[in-house]
Amino acid sequence: MQDKARPGSGERTRVGLREVAAVAGVSTATVSRVLNRPETVSEALRGRVTAVIDRLGWVPNAAARALASNRTGAIGAVFPALVGDLARAIDAMQDVLGARNHLLLLARSQYDADLEFSQARKLVERGVDGLILVGCTRAPAYEQFLARVEVPFVNSFVYNEAAQGPCVGPDNARAMAEVVDYLVALGHRRFALISHSMRNNDRATARRDGVRAALMRHGLAIPPHLVLEGQWSIANGRRLFRQVLATDPRPTALLFGNSLLAVGAVLEAAKMGVRVPEELSIVGHDDTEFMSELPTPISTVRVAAEEVGSAAADLIVDMVEGRSGVTGRRIASELVIRATTGPAPAS
């Protein structure tokens, strides 16, 4: 509830739900529905009530609404970083949540398991109605907390039917196995993998496992010294590319765990005079715009990040509203072939 000054006087009038209802000519219950469940009233009625709210300058008290409805209208999300696929998913999440009359509260964990747990706990303490998390592998104490507080949550960017809570995202192992199959069909037999850091990152771990399993099916393997980890950094991609190229024999196919690592490798290859893809094929992960705009556009695994974000937002709101038949959803990734992949060079 908010006090509103009467124009031209020193007095203040108290504007609240009843005053809005009286001026709009509707019941207080109707005003409440306009605010809390706008989809249940007609567009004309919603517009009339909203116009009165604006004219009277009333700001509904969120705390009071939460007490009355036992909901805050806020959804918490804990993401490890705010770049690439993750950033695009957050944009889509916010659009869907806003359209469904919910507010997004966002925290970043920097791939730190303890920090992620702490942030999820703080969001719950602040009364969020639900949580959107990334991945589905957590410490026992974290899982016990989620079960105890009974706040609905969704696991995003991963699909695992055995996980605690529904999942919305790709099968990360399958996506990378398809990349391996494609490159083996082109004649490649010597591989290297520069993964995103696997610290508190079950998506990167699944991608590595998918690569290894697919190579095993073909009777191949990556030597341990050619399985490396990097961060979201072009400079890191350059450095790790030089490290891989210093081995003998060199791999003919190099897989990356994120877009910036792959961009760094392509830039360093040009600097070193390594011909891509004639001498070495490169495949990234994620599909940021500049990957297709480089002089040598990069082949990559495209994750439907916007679809993941939208689906996760719809799913968590459905869970908060108690809708039946709510299930997770696998969202397929796509291998986008560009100029950095080709047949293996002759031995």
Q: Main sheet?
A: 6 strands, parallel
**CATH level 4 superfamily of the largest domain:** Response regulator
Strand numbers in spatial order across the main sheet: 4-3-5-6-7-13
User: Total strand count, please?
Assistant: 14
- Output the CATH class name of the largest domain: Alpha Beta
Alpha-carbon distance between the two ends: 77 Å
Determine the number of helices (DSSP H or I, runs of at least 4 residues): 13
Please estimate the helix content. 40-55%
Compressed to H and E, one letter per element, the order equals EEHHHHEHEHEHEEHEHEHEHEHEHEE
CATH topology of the largest domain: Rossmann fold
- Which term fits the overall shape? elongated
**Residue runs with pLDDT of under 50 for 5 or more positions:** 1-12
CATH architecture annotation name of the largest domain: 3-Layer(aba) Sandwich
Q: What percentage of the residues does DSSP assign to strands (E)?
A: 15-25%
Structural class by SSE content: alpha/beta
Radius of gyration: 25 Å
Descriptive keywords:
Rossmann fold; 347 residues; 6-stranded mixed beta sheet; alpha/beta; 434 Repressor (Amino-terminal Domain)
Describe this structure in words.
45% of the residues lie in helices and 17% in strands. The chain has helices at residues 17-24, 28-36, 43-56, 62-69, 84-99, 113-125, 140-149, 172-185, 202-217, 234-245, 259-272, 289-293, 305-320, and strands at 2-5, 12-15, 74-79, 103-108, 130-134, 153-156, 167-169, 191-196, 227-230, 253-256, 281-285, 299-302, 329-330, 334-336. It starts with a strand and ends in an 11-residue tail after the last strand. Strand 5, helix 7 and strand 6 form a beta-alpha-beta unit. Helix 1 (17-24) packs across helix 3. With 347 residues, the protein is an alpha/beta fold.
